[in-house]
Inverse folding.
């Protein structure tokens, strides 16, 4: 936020015009304010203020009336509904009893997190760092428990785990494939510039177009792979009624669109790796895997961590692909949290819609800032040291 | 252990070869090239096939689509223009006057917005071809939002790169308290939110100057930069309900201006982040000498800084333009008919009694992605630069 005219103007003056001063001079005298004020005002008005305002919706039952909206404050009822009430099936999934695998998984994760916290305490982390680690660990524990109670015990998933599935699995797959393609294109392959332009195209296309294109291509009865589906005996099978198939196909469309992004950034990072290091290692007789592990990988790690962070932030917001390809179905199998909130809003259930949006905000902030603190910053410091 | 350890590989070459012929560095054997080509070609197929399928389906008709997969036009099936003409044939308002009507509509709606808090004026119903309306809406909104975003964002980025700001932590607390007060006032005392909000904002800017002196905790330029950039983490769904209410209360739902503002705010973090990198890397001497000559900050910014960063500006503009063109969630909330953008119009085609008419759908998807594809191919270098800077410099 701009504050006064501390450094640029000697002889601080009142805000008004001086005698004999033109508007241009006045404007210039306050230029430091005018440069930054539009951006700050826009963000305050249309991002920060609404974020606070959403709290009002999240803690109220909202009704339409003749004079406008009627709010009735119910405090945490909307949030509680997501965790314990009717919406719980939607948000967390359905869980009855935990299987042995679920318990083992939970205990292993709990042990690992406790060890991690113990290491931080012994290592003399600051209070802020310790608080951050506690929050991250609590979130991780909650998600692990949820994961164990639903997937590992054969129960239905909710939108929370769907979103995380898109983020974790989708981003990992995209990173691995993007890295492999970038590595190939950074080698002296003939005609690699042509591929570079070609691979870039999907990034430009509307997610909506991608959704329709994949819906069409994956159509079992009319799509291009119809003979193939017939051949393997799935001619009458509709992938859109199978939860896992639908999820994987959404990830397929998402990957088609986003691998180019990771590819192009990692390619730039790979080309910045000094050639002489690689050549020296080649002369020494290192295999290309050794060269990659010992020389290339450490050098591209900071960029890789940053690009993953950017990709993750975008992945949390995924809405158009599942909406177009499956409309969140079958059931809620492919519904992301944004889509969940959108559906609630469509049903005029603004309180719950805002509550889900807020939970998404908390999830995004905790996961992204954990990733930033414990992976990106660490790698960047490691690379500089 | 010092340094990387390599296994000693057995070298089958003769001693003479080993001594006098350097190993082949920077070249690949034919075999390796072939393997690489196979993988790259496979990936090209994966990238191109969905696009190809959309293109050929746009030239099919109902019979061709429903009777199984056909791949090659003129051999497998006879291409038709039915999908394309259907967009216009079913629309009673489709004629040569569309352009003029769209212009009148735009002007009227902008005017209606400006005077709407004072007098009630009816915004015009669109009596033009739907496809045409959505297409021009998309153009107006994405270009307008990009222009606003670049103007505001690059100014802020320049200021953050060159002028030192010391915002006080108390300002943030003040803004939070004031906006909460505004919300409470509008909800419980029936004050119109626009009044309470603008009073709160005005109070904030008045207090911002004086508040800081009492509290010593100051932040720097990097904190403002991080604050703006971190807005990208904010999921749009969190802000959309209040934004909808805000625009509704000034009768701005379904106007171009509403979407322009919201899109600009959503992309502001990217623009500020990228442009800040360009500005920081400029040599400062030119600006200093211009300052000595008596140029104002605005003149320096307009005459010296912007021309020097033209390539970066182009990259950022293109990236923002594409993001705006493809935006979906805000448009779905904030438009109904008049300001409907292309993605919303396409999504609305999903619900038909006869299922999705793929040939029509593909034609319209092609109309939608054509400008972007052309841009992507022609200006690939610039867009790539914009994408790259986001991650590499971050």
């Amino acid at each position: 936020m701009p504050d006064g005219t501390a450094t640029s103007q000697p002889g601080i003056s009142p805000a008004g015009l001086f005698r004999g001063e033109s508007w241009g001079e006045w404007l210039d005298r306050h230029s430091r304010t005018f440069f930054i004020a539009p951006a700050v005002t826009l963000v305050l008005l249309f991002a920060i203020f609404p974020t606070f305002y959403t709290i009002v919706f999240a803690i109220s039952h909202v009704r339409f009336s003749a004079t406008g909206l009627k709010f009735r404050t119910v405090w945490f009822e909307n949030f509680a509904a997501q965790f314990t009430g009717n919406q719980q099936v939607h948000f967390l999934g359905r869980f009855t009893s935990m299987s042995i695998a679920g318990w083992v998984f939970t205990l292993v994760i709990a042990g690992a997190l406790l060890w991690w916290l113990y290491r931080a305490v012994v290592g003399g982390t600051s209070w802020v760092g310790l608080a951050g680690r506690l929050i991250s660990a609590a979130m991780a524990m909650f998600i692990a428990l949820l994961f164990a109670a639903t997937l590992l015990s054969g129960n239905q998933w909710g939108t929370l785990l769907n979103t995380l599935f898109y983020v974790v699995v989708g981003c990992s797959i995209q990173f691995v494939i993007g890295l492999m393609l970038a590595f190939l294109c950074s080698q002296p392959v003939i005609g690699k510039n042509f591929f570079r332009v070609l691979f870039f195209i999907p990034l430009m296309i509307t997610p909506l177009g991608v959704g329709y294109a994949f819906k069409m291509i994956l159509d079992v009865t009319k799509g291009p792979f119809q003979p193939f589906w017939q051949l393997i005996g799935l001619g009458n099978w509709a992938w859109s009624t199978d939860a896992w198939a639908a999820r994987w196909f959404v990830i397929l469309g998402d990957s088609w669109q986003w691998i180019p992004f990771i590819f192009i950034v990692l390619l730039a990072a790979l080309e910045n790796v000094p050639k002489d290091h690689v050549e020296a290692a080649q002369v020494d007789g290192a295999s290309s895997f050794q060269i990659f592990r010992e020389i290339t990988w450490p050098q591209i790690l900071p960029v890789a961590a940053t690009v993953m962070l950017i990709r993750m932030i975008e992945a949390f917001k995924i809405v158009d692909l599942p909406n177009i390809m499956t409309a969140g179905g079958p059931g809620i199998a492919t519904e992301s949290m944004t889509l969940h909130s959108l559906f609630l809003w469509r049903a005029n259930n603004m309180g719950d819609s805002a509550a889900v949006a807020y939970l998404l905000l908390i999830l995004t902030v905790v996961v992204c800032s954990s990733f930033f603190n414990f992976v990106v910053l660490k790698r960047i410091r490691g690379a500089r040291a | 252990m010092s340094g990387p350890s390599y296994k000693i590989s057995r070298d089958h070459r003769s001693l003479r070869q080993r001594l006098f012929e350097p190993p082949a560095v920077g070249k690949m054997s034919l075999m390796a090239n072939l393997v690489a080509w196979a993988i790259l070609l496979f990936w090209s197929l994966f990238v191109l096939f969905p696009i190809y399928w959309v293109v050929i389906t746009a030239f099919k008709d109902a019979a061709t689509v429903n009777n199984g997969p056909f791949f090659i036009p003129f051999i497998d099936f006879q291409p038709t223009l039915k999908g394309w003409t259907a967009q216009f044939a079913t629309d009673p308002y489709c004629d040569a006057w569309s352009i003029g009507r769209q212009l009148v509509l735009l002007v009227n709606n902008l005017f209606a917005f400006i005077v709407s808090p004072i007098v009630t004026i009816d915004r015009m119903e669109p009596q033009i071809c739907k496809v045409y309306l959505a297409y021009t809406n998309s153009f107006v909104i994405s270009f307008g939002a990009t222009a606003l975003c670049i103007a505001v964002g690059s100014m802020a980025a320049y200021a953050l790169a060159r002028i030192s700001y010391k915002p006080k932590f108390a300002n943030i607390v003040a803004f939070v308290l004031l906006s909460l007060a505004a919300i409470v006032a509008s909800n419980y005392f029936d004050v119109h939110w626009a009044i309470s909000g603008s009073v709160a904002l005005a109070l904030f800017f008045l207090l911002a100057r004086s508040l800081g002196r009492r509290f010593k905790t100051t932040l720097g330029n990097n904190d403002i930069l991080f604050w703006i950039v971190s807005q990208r983490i904010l999921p749009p769904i969190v802000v959309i309900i209040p934004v909808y209410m805000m625009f509704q209360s000034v009768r701005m739902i379904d106007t171009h201006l509403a979407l322009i503002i919201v899109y600009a705010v959503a992309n502001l973090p990217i623009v500020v982040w990228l442009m800040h990198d360009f500005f920081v890397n400029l040599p400062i001497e030119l600006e200093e000498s211009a300052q000595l000559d008596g140029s104002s900050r605005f003149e320096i910014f307009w005459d010296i800084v912007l021309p020097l960063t033209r390539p970066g500006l182009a990259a950022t503009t293109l990236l923002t333009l594409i993001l705006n063109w493809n935006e979906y969630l805000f448009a779905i909330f904030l438009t109904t008919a008049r300001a409907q953008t292309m993605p919303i119009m396409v999504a609305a085609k999903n619900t038909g009694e006869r299922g999705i008419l793929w040939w029509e759908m593909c034609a319209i998807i092609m109309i939608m992605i054509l400008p972007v594809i052309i841009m992507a191919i022609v200006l690939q270098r610039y867009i790539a630069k914009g994408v790259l800077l986001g991650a590499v410099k971050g």
In short: Chain B has a mean pLDDT of 79. The longest helix of chain B spans residues 130-162. DSSP finds 18 helices and no strands in chain B.
